[in-house]
Write a structure and sequence with these properties.
The complex is a heterodimer. Chain A is α/β, with parallel strands linked by helices. Chain A is built from 16 helices and eleven strands. In chain A, strand 7 and strand 8 form a beta hairpin. Classes of the chains: A alpha/beta, B alpha/beta.
Chain lengths: 417, 690
Amino acid sequence: MSKKGDMLYAWTNDAEIQKKAELGGAVTTLWKYALESKMVDAVLVVTKGADLYDAVPVVITDPKELPKTAGSLHCGTLLMAKLVKKYLNGAQDKKIGVTVKGCDAMAFYELAKRKQINLDNVIMIGVNCGGSVSPVLARKMIKEKFGVDPEKVHKEEIDKGQFIIEYEGGHKGISVDELEEAGFGRRSNCRRCKMKVPRQADLACGNWGVIGPRAGKATFVEVCSEKGANLLDGAVKKGLLATEAANPKGLEIRAKVENAMFKLADKWRKHDFTALGDGKDRLRKIMSETARCIKCYQCIDQCPICYCVDCTTRNPAYVPPGELPVNFMFHLIRYAHIADSCVNCGQCEEICPAEIPNALFMHAQQVELEKMFGHTPGVNMDLPLLALVEEKAERARLNATGSDMIYENVFNPMPNR
Amino acid sequence: MVNMMSDVKTELKYVPTTCPYCGVGCGLNLVVQNGKCVGVEPNKRTPINEGKLCPKGASCWEFVHNPDRLTKPLIKKDGKFVEASWDEALDLIVKKFSEIYKAGGPKALGFQTSCRTVNEDCYALQKWARVGFLTNNVDNCARICHGPSVAGLSLSFGSGAATNPFEDVLNSDLIVMWGSNAVEAHPLAGRRVMQAKKKGIKIIVVDPRYSATARLADQYIRFNPSTHIALANNIMYYIVKEGLENKEFIQKRTKGFDDLKKTIEKYADATNIHGVPQETVQDFARQYAKAKNAVIIYCLGITELTTGTDNVRSMGNLALITGNVGREGTGVNPLRGQNNVQGACDMGAYPNVYSGYQKCEVPENRAKMEKAWFLKEGSLPDWYGVTLTEQINQAGDPIKAMYFMGLNPVVSYPDSNHVKRQLDKLDFCVMQDIFWTESCEYADVVLPGTCFAEKDGTFTSGERRVNRVRKAVDGPGEAKLDWEIIALLAKKMGLKGFDWKTAKDVWDDMRACTPSMFGCTYEKMEKPESVHWPCPTIEHPGTPILHREKFSAADGLGTMFGLEYRPPAEVADKEYPFTMMTGRLIFHYHTRTQTDRCSILHYDVPESYVQMNTQDAQELGVKHGDKVKITSRRGETVTTARVTDDVAPKVMYMTMHFANGVNNLTNTALDPLSKMPELKHCAVKVEKVA
């Protein structure tokens, strides 16, 4: 019987999964068990779309379909939690298993705090993530920096600080540092990210720290919750998964890798935040960049903190409708509502058609707020600084005062004016 | 986004497809659950937009299942529309069209296709018109957006399409945006310009209006509406005067320089026409001529005028005189308006060409098509068919019956009152659409078609990239695929060559008789990069950049033209003292049949407005938000004033999206070469509504 805190090597006994999976295939095997044992009704995982640069989310209920989801796609920059909220009813009525990166795990917690996802119905298998690369940029990088036709690449991975590709006729690795200096490499939010091992998931898996004879053939598993322990034990008991205690030396190596990643993230934070300037300079920069906004609302739509049905950006008293350039209040509303809880998932920046570094602005503020108030978003169920409200109840309460204008109600509460 | 109720959902299907709005052709994923579209999610793999979308693209799933969708054929009986079976409706259409054809011949019929629907639908409609009724009276609504680009660029460069891809602006040293508000009208092409700006590439916006795009510019040049030729000639005067023309390029790759030179000598100072100070003109000339690679991006500000073709050729002149064509970072790029405006033309839904711009006047082309289409030798007509708005003018005489596929002429064509009067004169009119539009009132039969989410097919974007459209859900009620409706009509007439089973069959039918697109197979389009035509063979990789070694004209040369400035057909005068310009808005598409049914777009702009200058507003006693009545010689509209200095004094601006809006005012006068009506310039008077 395993328990929270256990560190193991795990590998699959399933012949089918073995063929397709990487590094032991533990994650795919655990999902197979979860589905077969009805521990979950469905799993939300990622599969290859048009090619290996195209990560597409898929909901699987038939364990036979799992092998197609095996392996990792470093060009997958999806955010799974918001998909569960938007399309899977927030796991309110179904038990769902999800493979998560650090940002996904953090997003699940933030949406759960806001009652948009029922975490009791979610099992998360975390995977170590050193960062992901946007697909189109990845192809350009492979063409320009590696001198390889991206069509010919059949495998990519990030290992030991290198972005490595395997292609028809060879393999090639270039240091991530070098790529990023040249404007390629991981998304900028990933560079600043320090959630490399998502321990707030139920199990945290990866290949860091797998050494010795098991290297490349087993998955490192850290048990992070009772739910995770049950899943693991069940799969082992069924004979689907084999485990052994992790090599102590492997533990050290794993910690070293994680620490190296932290240091790199600190370097990027310093780099990015310094470039933003301070005080009025920073404000000026934010105002000039956001002035390009074309009001697609996608930063809101994709944000794992946003959930309001009646978004304040759609209140004509704050943001005049139908106007370009968009009133700066649009962005101020976003900062005020989100900055304390921003998990730096990067979606708002990656999907911005106006090339506004939204995630950078939001993350820079979150880091400052965390310093001031000590609240870290995305790691547990602790509530953020701003009190959460039941949106509908709060709107009703405000409406009852004769106006739903929050500012007026807070500073000038005159019922039934 | 929809909030799922308690019914259990365990499906999450992404269908990668192409946005149904503008000519950029963004990729997106339609999210499908239980047979319904429930959202749009980014497709980050597509090279066109990398997952980024504008407000329209992001909300395009919302109209698909709107309860207003047409679900059954409707026939007008005793002035009222009643539901009918498909057989009844199609039999009636065949009967009426056949009768009218028998009595009046091929010139008694008119066929018009939308640039909003897939290539396969456009090809099917023109094939039916040509095979079934031996007529060239077939056109598409490119006529009223980029018709002058097709005409003008063909004359200048030998091909009527954009020369370079959108992303190529990042290879430029100077981006000139002339009469293009890309940030609103082509937002994800606008994004490329934003990227260029971040890269430090200089941007000059030339526009009568300080638009959202002008705000991006390093330099904004305001000029008087519709004075493009005078300004371009004035610029070229300085280029030649200072010896900045690209002599080697002119000598090796062009003709017509002497003709141009003679004309531009007369434009030493044209400030009295275009309103731009001479030092600005001179400075622009130097910047454009001296840039290593300069690109011109233009749009409807250039084309929608009676001088449209000459305006386009003026852009061609500028590029040719400086050698800015045929390599990365250069070119002359019209931003094609609608999602498939390039494609509708490519498919031969045009009165003088078959698919791939094979001219009807060439006997060999006719002979080839007659063979491909099982027609008797010598049966296809050689005459130039009647164009879009000229068909409206001919309604009643000699055109007695018209077929509209996905068009709303009562709102989108100039002079709405005229359009309504003309449609009333038809003996028989068919509207095939997805929603009941303002134009359906004028139909005898209304047929329910299917929208982009319900069909397989292709849209060809403004960069000549053929993008796949993939079926996500079934159409509502009895709605049918649009090409299938056409095929059923053709088969009822006993025509051969319409036995298509799938959209791919229609596409392959087209490919087989279209050399420039023969290599554009559905297989190639499976890749998100897809393929740019020309692509003549299966092995060919496609052609992102045109005119590299030589121009597409028969002699391989680019042609410069000496073009004189001509004023618009109707200019402001004492009685109608204001100039009315028209344009587009980021929040809506065309006549809003789709966009107004998306909640956020309706929220942002629910009704029309007019931009007027602060000084004018003051003189008229109009305040921001006041209602005003605007009148032209052809009609009137009531709208809300937005008071701003974004437009110059005596100039006003309205968007074209609203029924009983600006097209009640606009002028039907035509560009003689391209038959483009003067949608962007007419004279109006304004009064405050009490």
